[in-house]
Amino acid sequence: MTVETQPSRRAFLFAAGAAGIGATWWLTRGGWGVVSATVGGSTRKSQPGEVTIVEFSDDGKRLRKVKVARIIKTDDEWKKQLTPLQFHVTRQAGTERAYTGATWDTKEPGIYRCVCCDTALFSSKTKFESGTGWPSFWEPIARENVREESDRGLGMVRTEILCPRCDAHLGHVFEDGPPPTGLRYCMNSAALRFAKAPEK
Question: pTM for this one?
């Protein structure tokens, strides 16, 4: 290869960066999925205190707004309660592979609760098929029942969604959802416990 046709280092770095961004976009839009964790695989450290949440029955009826103590457990305690995948997703901010979760295509009426502390998170009434392979909702069951944090992992800025009571990582929210909110709460099945609405 002559000097004239040899690609420059700058061009190579640009192409590598573009490929990385493209791969990240593919994964977050519902490609193969990615199992990731926080740096070093460390778990999120919760702080003691109280939070306000709204309680719901399994048929989605709003019951009351309450103040509850935040749930704090050691890694060993969480590991006894959760499966390895649930622990990785909720305590280490991991992501299950697309189309593998237990509830990504569930269409039955009911609500989705936090697998760690049972806080009501989403209703089947706001669930929609996003084509990503993860359970997707256009709004939470109550604003108080989810918490947002900035996530700068994977080389981009996203909005992470967590359970306010136990700090479980649930997924992310994107601004490409359907009306009326235009939002897509892209959640991990491993972070959710589906509570089917009682038969009437």
Answer: 0.77
